[in-house]
Design goal:
Elements: H1 6-23, H2 48-60, E1 69-75, H3 82-87, E2 100-101, E3 108-111, E4 114-120, H4 127-146, H5 152-174, E5 178-181, E6 186-190, H6 196-209, H7 215-218, H8 223-237, H9 240-248, H10 266-277, H11 295-314
Parallel strand pairs: 1-4, 2-6
Antiparallel strand pairs: 3-4, 5-6
Helix pairs in contact: 1-5, 1-6, 2-4, 4-5, 5-6, 6-8
Length: 316
């Protein structure tokens, strides 16, 4: 059984393939952005200026023109939820089975290369949610700058796939499930349109497409995301032909019609790679040529044989 329904698997692979087929040149060598001081060296104090610097840092990793202008605006949506407004923590809810998803705010164009980027204040207080929100909006900027005609229903998920293809998948995955303390219990919050398994699949595809190591991702993930990523990387590694096509001929996958292999166990994948990589070589049997002995060596050998024969005959 797959960790995602087959239609969802096909949709994500096909959408990723469309992004690569149309913009493969600018996405040829993206950097995997990790949530470390190497990628985020700026001091963060939680104020507007800090958030602005953080956003500019994230945008700098995306394939966006230097003349792009984007201004942040902050939208307080907590008043629409009476329970949250009463508590003030943003974490109250009687439901515990699914993550509370922040309503999506759409980037607005203000002119050529000029945008207004709205940010929900509900995500500002948590680092993982904030960075994922900014990465999501960066993916939106990628689509808008590329002139992509994407429906309103698909714009959010496609923005996140574009961000993943640009190297922002890990920080998006981190923000897809964040547990925060509510009045009576912990509650999962989600700053992304795609779920943890869906984003995990996009990140796993990115890792294998660009020859990176899975531990570079796994080390930054919480339990829920790590479990989803392990499932995703196992599925991707069970479909090497699909990954090869996505790398070299993505246009062949954009219609969602392609063969999917069932997920194999780790041992099956390991030995499968060994068999595929092993070169078949003819078995050579070495035959030693007779050794030519000197007269002295032949005399000594004859004497030794005579002594052995004499000993054997005397023992009977």
């Amino acid at each position: 059984m797959s960790f995602l329904p087959e239609p969802t698997l096909r949709d994500i692979v096909a959408a990723y393939a469309r992004i690569r087929s149309q913009h493969g040149a600018v996405l040829a060598s993206p950097v995997l952005v990790e949530p470390t001081s190497q990628f985020f060296p700026d001091t963060f104090s939680g104020d507007v200026d800090s958030i602005g610097r953080l956003f500019r840092r994230i945008v700098s990793y995306a394939p966006l023109a230097s003349e792009l202008q984007a201004s942040l605006s902050f939208v307080d949506e907590r008043g629409s939820d009476n329970e949250e407004a009463a508590c003030g923590t943003g974490g109250c809810s009687t439901a515990t089975t699914s993550a509370k998803r922040t309503p999506r705010l759409l980037v607005a164009s203000l002119g050529e290369h000029h945008y207004n980027v709205p940010i929900s204040t509900a995500n500002v207080s948590n680092p993982a949610l904030l960075v994922a929100t900014l990465a999501h909006q960066t993916g939106s900027l990628i689509l808008l700058e590329a002139g992509e005609a994407v429906s309103a229903d698909e714009f959010g998920p496609t923005s996140e796939l574009a961000a993943c293809a640009a190297g922002l998948g890990v920080v998006l995955l981190n923000g897809s499930c964040v547990y925060m303390k509510a009045c009576s219990a912990l509650r999962a919050h989600q700053a992304t349109d795609l779920s943890p398994p869906e984003l995990a699949l996009a990140v796993a595809l990115f890792i294998r497409l660009h020859g990176l190591k899975a531990p570079a991702v796994r080390a930054h993930l919480e339990v829920t995301q790590r479990e989803a990523f392990d499932e995703a990387i196992a599925w991707v590694d069970s479909n090497p032909a699909l990954v090869g096509t996505l790398r070299d001929r993505p246009e062949l996958l954009t219609d969602g019609v392609f063969q999917i292999e069932a997920r194999k166990s780790w041992l099956s994948r390991f030995f499968g790679r060994r068999v595929a990589n092993r070169e078949e070589a003819p078995v050579a049997i070495a035959v030693k040529a007779p050794v030519e002995r000197t007269a002295e060596e032949s005399r000594r050998l004859s004497e030794a044989r005579a002594l052995v024969d004499e000993a054997l005959s005397g023992s009977t």
